[in-house]
Amino acid sequence: MRSGACTLTDNAASNRRQTASEVAAHPLRGIIGRSALKAHLSIDPDSELIDEVVATPANTPDRDAVSDLVAPLANEEDKPEVLGDSAYADGATRDTLAAKGLKVMAKCPPVRNATGLFTKDRFDVDLETNTVTCPAGQRVTINPTRDGGGRASFKIHCKECPMRTACTKSRAGRTISVHPHEPTLQRARAEQTEPGWVEHYRADRPIVERKLAHFVRRSWGGRRARTRGKERVATDLDTRAGAINWARLAALGLQRDHSGWVIAGT
After folding, report:
1. What is the pTM of this model?
2. Whole-angstrom Cα distance, residue 65 to residue 40?
């Protein structure tokens, strides 16, 4: 599924994929007091049907809408794969969805260092031994922090280190922060290096982006909410999504026969 950023899902039983916004997060110039709104979509890239729509205040992080977008999947036995952009790549979101039985495929942002010196990925964070090893081969213990993460300080090793100028400018030496969800993020970054990961990740993006463009067409109100108040805006978004889905079903050849509604050729 894709959300505020889009998520893709792959259901082996039905061979379908879904997206939880690209969960689509599109700003709407509707008003709640003085606050703008944002629409999050869940889209099936195969059929190009909108599965779910959620309205939130515009300052709501995209990841906070994911639980609502995937709620209809909670009772499915064959859980889909969820694909999202980097807005859904944080460890907390991954672990929350994993607890619901959903596998997440979201691109972790690259590790950066604003100083231009060694980035964190040059250090070997070993969670089994609870240690961190620096590029110079020095190993220190990770000290736990209150948020569930940890810090590894190389202060005692940095003073005489020949690689210091490429590693840190701090008089206190280099310190590596260990994220509370470090194991989850390590697995995610490792998966991104596997062959075919990027191709799979990008496969349905154009389809999802096109559907998002359909959703904000001027004939449907564009990016401007047509009502006031989040509840009314949410109802209007559901109506908009329903009308777009009917148009898509017509294009797919929806028709009625003796067995009920069917898609032509299926």
Report:
1. 0.76
2. 7
> Distance from CA of residue 30 to its chain's centroid?
25
The total domain count for the chain is: 2
What letter does residue 87 receive in the DSSP assignment? G
Lowest mean pLDDT among 30-34, 37-41, 214-218, 222-226: 30-34
How far apart CA 195 and CA 128 sit, in angstroms, is 26
192 and 100 co-located in one domain: yes
What is the distance between the alpha carbons of residues 24 and 42, in angstroms, rounded to a whole number?
A: 8
- Calculate ∠ Cα 2-184-119, nearest 5°: 100
Q: Tell which residue, 167, 162, 158, has the closest CA to residue 113.
A: 167
Q: How many helices and strands (H and E) does the chain possess?
A: 8, 14
pLDDT digits (tens, 9 = 90+) for 117-156: 999 999 999 999 999 999 999 999 999 999 999 999 999 9
Same domain as 72, residue 25: yes
Sign (positive or negative) of CA dihedral 59, 64, 68, 69: positive
Q: How far apart are the two ends of the chain, measured CA to CA in Å?
A: 24
Confidence of residue 33 (pLDDT cuts 50, 70, 90): very low
* Alpha-carbon span 263 to 266, nearest angstrom: 6
Is residue 9 domain-resident?
no
The percent of residues in the chain predicted with pLDDT above 70, rounded, is 85
d(CA 120, CA 176): 7
Could you tell me if 198 and 244 lie in one domain? yes
Residue 200 shares a structural domain with residue 102:
yes
Residue 162 lies in a domain: yes
